[in-house]
Write a structure and sequence with these properties.
single chain, alpha+beta, Uridine Diphospho-n-acetylenolpyruvylglucosamine Reductase, domain 2, Uridine Diphospho-n-acetylenolpyruvylglucosamine Reductase, domain 3, 3 domains, five-stranded antiparallel β-sheet, four-stranded mixed β-sheet, globular
Amino acid sequence: MKSIPNLQENIRIAPYTSMRVGGTVRRLYRPESVEQLTDLVLSCREEGVPYLVIGNASNLLFPDEGYQGAVISTVGIKELSLQGGKIVASCGVSLSALSVFAMEHGMDGLAFAYGIPGTVGGGVYMNAGAYGGEISDCLESILALTKDGAIRTLSREELSLSYRHSRLQEEELLLLSATFRCEEGIPAEIKSVMDRNMASRKEKQPLEYPSCGSAFKRPAGQFAGALIQEAGLKGFSIGGAQVSEKHAGFVINKGSATAEDVKALLAHVQKIVYENSGVLLEPEIQIL
């Protein structure tokens, strides 16, 4: 395998995840460019080394037993530029940085992404959204590494984007960068929207605790948090994992949660909400 900077071996993954849970991983790589990322992934494939590419791991639950392959973090890959009136962002750019960059250049449509704790790679993978906006609203295309090792440009239409879903979840496609086309806007007005959204986050969401954001996808015509609250589960705990008392749609780590605690709590919430309302909630958190 080619030499890659920032290799750490036999390291606990929990500090690198938003939920702050997860065991030891054999190798953690942190490439600093798309080229290094591509070389590393291709080397893993050629050598038969199991690998997992992550961003901020803001929507990902690692198991307590860890991961015996290579974990590749993209957060050091932060190229962000304006090209031909479009924003080109590499996979490790944070969604907040993307939102700020768009605002500073008078480009409207990405204000909703300010405060979402993921990266561009994870954001496209999940078609992340908030406050009435989604990545698909402004995404034009992506550059991706395919299963056969080719680098292809895929249009938004080719990505099968829908609510918290993309083609990337179904195929061995690794997003390297994404291109966004936005409407022209006034920076001060865009910033006002961003500030208003952030104030709402701080008021309504338990940002003071580790979490993966919304624990469940929104059921059609309803809200997961409301269904959980109506089932009497607000504040319910298993081990160190708790349904937030501030926002029932969040599962938080009170400080000592294990991945098994979180999984057990998600399963319990599903069971009780289904018994109470007939709605089977689908986890938004990706469980390894």
